[in-house]
Design brief:
The protein is mainly alpha-helical. Helices cover 78% and strands 0% of the residues. Helix 3 crosses helix 12, helix 3 packs across helix 13 and helix 6 packs antiparallel against helix 11. The protein starts with a helix and ends with a helix.
Length: 324
């Protein structure tokens, strides 16, 4: 690795450590170090909630930028993100079905708190298999993007219909979930999210080397022995798992999957994909921890903050691309 890359990583890691320290000390109560290490402390439960918040943002910072990075490199489109294939929209639709119709079913108590997350992951995985079934018919990558946009539009329309006929409490619950709740993730959910993220990262690792060949062109990649069908499978499965798991537990976190890879390419050589992947994860963790601090201090929902940050950046990206 080059010296410049090591310096960039070091600076970002220092920023991560500082943001984590600030994040752990934000709240109505001032906690001490013993509150975080002693289980019998009076404030140990509050300390655990803050630890879960920090870990949730760390996992989101790894997952969403990695998903966006894979999609952008595969489609060779800097505006591609986790929502480009409709993954986030279908996860939201699955959660909407659960919230709006859950009162009609009697679920065991141990399922009531986790079924919302299970429904989001199940919906996204179902879309993943549909995409895999249709991807063989789309030789042009742009058709798969159009298919994803159509799925997103359809899911949004169905959610609007459900909201129109929903009861007040169900509608309120869905809106609160859609804002993004980084401070309501339990320890068990953190373990489940960690397991899914690890699986997604392992698949992502297998996709990086073929992506390097794919970036040189389809014909050249095939001459190098790159299995394009397997690469497509890796990208779709990894991006689905990573983005769906975060959406399930934290709500839809928008635009981070597009913006973070863009920043990573700005600060280091975009042709070096292994380094770009590492930068995406480090920069994603720092940005998500920072947004968590802003969310806790301002009391604004996390999704609102990411949108206020992401939309201007994407507009500038589009204007810059048009003027180049």
């Amino acid at each position: 690795m080059s010296k410049n890359f090591k310096i960039i990583c070091l600076l970002i890691m220092i920023g991560i450590i500082l943001s984590v320290a600030v994040n752990l000390n934000i709240g109505f109560l001032k906690l001490t170090f013993s509150d975080y290490i002693a289980s019998d402390s009076v404030n140990s439960q509050i300390a655990q909630l803050r630890m879960n918040r920090v870990l949730a943002m760390l996992l989101a910072g790894i997952s969403i930028p990695t998903s966006g990075f894979l999609l952008q490199e595969y489609f060779q489109n800097p505006l591609a993100g986790p929502s480009v294939l409709g993954i986030t929209s279908v996860a939201s639709l699955s959660v909407a079905f659960y919230i709006f119709f859950a009162q009609d079913f009697v679920l065991p108590e141990f399922l009531q708190n986790s079924f919302l997350s299970i429904s989001a992951i199940a919906g996204s995985l179902m879309l993943m298999f549909i995409l895999l079934a249709f991807s063989g018919r789309f030789q042009d990558k742009s058709f798969l993007i159009i298919f994803g946009f159509l799925i997103s539009a359809l899911a949004g329309a169905v959610v609007s219909i459900l909201q129109f006929y929903a009861e007040n409490q169900s509608l309120k619950n869905y809106i609160l979930w859609s804002f993004g709740a980084n401070n309501q993730v339990s320890t068990n959910q953190i373990w489940v999210l960690t397991l899914i993220v690890i699986v997604g990262l392992l698949i992502s690792f297998k996709a990086i080397k073929p992506l390097i060949g794919n970036s040189l062109g389809t014909s050249y990649a095939q001459s190098l022995g790159v299995n394009l069908n397997r690469l497509k499978l890796f990208v779709i499965v990894a991006s689905s798992l990573l983005s769906a798991s975060v959406t399930a537990f934290l709500g839809p976190i928008l635009f981070i999957g597009i913006v973070v890879p863009h920043f990573s390419r700005m600060i280091f050589n975009p042709a070096k994909l292994w380094q770009q992947w590492i930068l995406n994860m480090l920069l994603g963790i720092f940005i998500m921890e920072f947004f968590s601090i802003v969310s806790e201090t301002s009391q604004f929902p996390l999704n609102v903050i990411t949108s206020l940050f992401g939309i201007p950046v994407i507009l500038m990206m589009m204007l810059h691309k048009r003027t180049v």
